[in-house]
Specification:
The chain is α+β, with helices and mostly antiparallel strands. Helix content is about 60%, strand content about 10%.
C-alpha cells in the first residue's frame, strides 16, 4: 500500500478543507493518511516563501480568484460548516506544539479535529491562551496537560524536526502531501493524490 503523509498547519484554511475531504479518499482507497504537523511560519522562513495574502496582494484579481476557487471547492464537497476566521492570520505556534504534545498523550486525532473546528468553523482566536485552553477543554481534552507538555524541549524539537523534514522533502507550504516520494501541494491536488495512491497500489498488488 502507498504511504501518504499530510503535512499541515492549523493556520491554513486549505489544510482544514483538505482534512474534511481526506476521509473520503481514505474510504475509497483503503489507505490511511499520516498527519504530520509542520509549522508553516518555519516552512516559509526555510524556503523564503510568503503567505498568499502577501505574495499575491499586489496582483490584480489574483486573491479574488483564489476566493472563488475556495467557494467552488466548498460547494463541491458540501463543506457547509467552513467559515473564514475573523482573526486571520492566527499565530499557530501554540496550537502546533500542542499537536505534537497530543501525539505523545495519545489524543492526536481528537486534538486535530478540535483545533480545526475551533479555527475554521467556530472562528476562534486560537493564539489567545485562554481561548485555546477553553476550546480544548470544551472538546474534553486536558488543556493543562497539553499546554504543559507543549512547553517541553522535546516537543519544540519534534515540531522543528517535522518542519525541517517537510522542507527536505520539497514542501514549501500547507497543505502538502507525499505519496511515497511524490509531492503534491494544495487542496486542489487531492484528486491527483488519490490517482497516485491508486496507481501505486495497483503497481504493488
Amino acid at each position: 500500500m502507498a504511504k501518504v503523509v499530510f503535512y499541515f498547519d492549523f493556520g491554513s484554511p486549505n489544510a482544514y478543507l483538505s482534512h474534511r475531504v481526506i476521509p473520503q479518499i481514505e474510504q475509497r482507497t483503503g489507505v490511511r493518511f499520516t498527519y504530520v504537523p509542520a509549522l508553516l511560519g518555519g516552512i516559509f522562513k526555510l524556503t523564503n516563501n510568503q503567505s498568499p495574502a502577501i505574495a499575491f496582494g499586489g496582483i490584480k484579481n489574483k486573491l479574488e480568484y483564489e476566493g472563488l476557487e475556495t467557494k467552488r471547492f466548498v460547494a463541491r464537497h458540501e463543506l457547509t460548516r467552513f467559515r473564514h476566521n475573523p482573526h486571520f492570520p492566527v499565530n499557530t505556534l501554540m496550537a502546533m506544539r500542542g499537536a505534537v504534545a497530543a501525539q505523545e498523550l495519545g489524543v492526536f486525532d481528537r486534538y486535530v479535529e478540535a483545533v480545526f473546528v475551533a479555527m475554521w468553523e467556530s472562528g476562534l482566536k486560537m493564539d489567545d491562551p485562554a481561548v485555546f485552553a477553553g476550546a480544548l477543554d470544551a472538546a474534553d481534552l486536558s488543556s493543562a496537560q497539553i499546554i504543559e507538555l507543549s512547553g517541553a524541549d522535546r516537543t519544540k524539537q519534534a515540531l522543528l524536526k517535522n518542519t525541517e523534514d517537510a522542507v527536505a522533502n520539497g514542501v514549501f507550504g500547507s497543505p502538502s502531501f507525499l505519496v511515497d516520494s511524490e509531492l503534491f501541494f494544495g487542496k486542489d491536488r487531492l484528486r491527483d493524490v488519490e490517482e497516485e495512491i491508486t496507481k501505486q497500489t495497483a503497481t504493488t498488488a
